Amino acid sequence: MTAPTAPSAPTEPPRSRPRSVLLWTAVALLGAVGWGMLALARGEEVSAIWLVVAALGSYAIAYRFYARFIARRVLRPDDSRATPAERLEDGVDYHPTDRRVLFGHHFAAIAGAGPLVGPVLAAQMGYLPSTIWIVVGVIFAGAVQDMMILFFSMRRDGKSLGQMARDEIGRVGGAAALIGVFAIMVILLAVLALVVVNALAHSPWGTFSVAMTIPIALFMGFYLRYLRPGRVVETSVIGVALLLLAILGGGWIQDSSLADAFVWSPTTLVFCLIGYGFVASVLPVWMLLAPRDYLSTFMKVGTIVLLAVGVVIAAPTLRTDAVTPFASSGDGPVFAGALFPFLFITIACGALSGFHALVSSGTTPKLIQKESQVRMIGYGSMLMESFVAVMALVAACVIDPGLYYAMNAPAGMLGTTVESASRAVADLGFSITPDQLAAAARAVEEETLIARTGGAPTLAVGMAEIFSQVFGGAGMKAFWYHFAIMFEALFILTTVDAGTRVGRFMLQDMLGNVWKPIGRVTWKPGIWITSALVVGAWGYFLYVGVTDPLGGINQLFPLFGIANQLLAAIALTIATTLLVKAGKLRWAWVPGLPLAWDVAVTFTAGWQKIFSDDPKVGFFANRERFVDAIEAGQVLAPAKNMDEMHTVVLNQTVDGVIMALFLLVVATVIANAAVVCVRAVRSAEPLPTTEAPYVESRIEVPASWPSDGGREKGREPVGVGER
Amino acid sequence: MTAALLDRAARLLRGVRWYLREFSGEADYERFRLRHLREHPDEPVPSWREYERRRARHREEHPQSRCC
């Protein structure tokens, strides 16, 4: 498909030309100034621009120097070696794809609600620690993990993370990794669904417009299947237009007599989502999943670009403190626990996300044209994702801190009236008057903004603030708020269907070993049973998150964060082991250091969640408190009766046991890997690996930018360049 | 001057169109058709509709995870 062209250009330009030295010095200085402004400015207003400058400057330096170092010294990609896309080309799973297109696909697959929600919650500790971790974390951990897993999977014909664990570490480690991945997926889906429930509860506008995405997706599905097969762009344009109409329509519904029909309680929404998740995962993909995926991808990329433009033009000032008292006290209302380890757990995806390892070892490695492109696709996409997290942080930090706490503290603390919420916020050491709270809700045309936890509503308020300064003024605030809610709900729901399907396949695969028929992917009852099991699993946690008086995002998000970071530990362990097995012990620190850090963070957090005496942090300590109260015949707030007391005890037990199970699984993988590493170091000859043998490449794609000499010139995807 | 500008604008537009078609997978059928003609010259090429159906079926059996 790619015609051979002229002899290959040298992979790297000549080193240290004066102009390039000057340019990179300037970039470094600019980044340093950005960091200086963030860290040193005290008692005055800091513009969000500095946050963006500091982040972009650091990314540029990291991509140019650290990622290049990893490529040249550690991984040593070889462009004369044929990639699986070339060797196994079948036009279906494997085909060499232009790297700018693949960059877009990979980014769309890794980016989701995680980097948007995490930083919003982490903002309770101030913008400085969050920014530092988002940027430093991505450079030394997240992007390194994504790039390395992509490379290793590519060298193994696109093997999945679980397969690599089994082949390279051993059966025990492999089985543990498989169980870990499945369990983590369940928690992930529950948390994401909870974000949607919290964003839509008691909001007729939001509920109507998000519900409309289902008929819109169905329409697109039928249109693409029967009327205009394959015309995805045209269909997506129609879909996005209908979506905008649905958002406007929501405003109309809100003011009409139909509004009451769309005021749904959280419990109702939970059952709707569970039902939706089941139906969506058993319907044919073309009907709902595929069109929804197109919609959410275009909306995702479009909104992120819009947000970047908005932040740069509006240049809002950060109103949160650089570091808040909650960073050291650990008793913040949004999530409990001290900065170490809980800030790192909460930010999760924007800095390091174990989930990306599943994408990096799935489709992407089967599509890479040239080995050296792992740097742009693996490392580069993750830098973009981190930038999304930075912008979400900006959106959370430009809103009034009083409003932030009124939206994110638990309902039990805030009460239900503007007066009680205002008092609760004052107790936290911030201030917002009841009138201001009511006005803030009116500005976005919501009934209330009190205790709208989950991150999505806060992000939407921040985005509405930024967007309305640039496009449309204060009158457009309500539209932008609901636009932001819709955009998040849209891709969370896409993740929910896609995740349920992936979970079902994993389950079918595992159960198929025990009972053959259930493993058959075409046997309908098997599909229904396993889908119901997966939906039931995440549905349980979602239901608990809504009905348990102590439940909610404050309880579940740390569980999700720890799970995600533990998955990253598995991925980094695999990367380290593979380097050691390849005889590159001296470079093992590249994934090894972030692994050590990640293990320290997750195991400290997990340990505290299990053993802490503080009932706000420790599951079992809290369980004890409730058990004691039950024995004494008392009802502890926020529980309202004995039934709720028993619910709390059960759920705290389940959460604590799951936490322990996660830690055990990951410890097993690491221990097994350590044995393999020691054996590899001691062994006189290299241990067997599953790397595919060298085959010479016959396609020619210069690694320099821009690539396609004679072919059509494609525009660079936004935010990418030879940095 | 204007000619050069127009030329650049046209190239940019072509680039955007190229990217959208590649990114959305619209361009895949054409690639498939050419490949089919090359590898199975005597068999009729399946229509775009048929191709998309096969692709949907394939996707049914190879779910892809979307990330958080």
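qc> Chain B touches chain A at residues 11-12, 14-16, 18-26, 29, 31-32, 35, 48-49, 51-53, 55-56, 58-68 (CB under 8 Å).
qc> done
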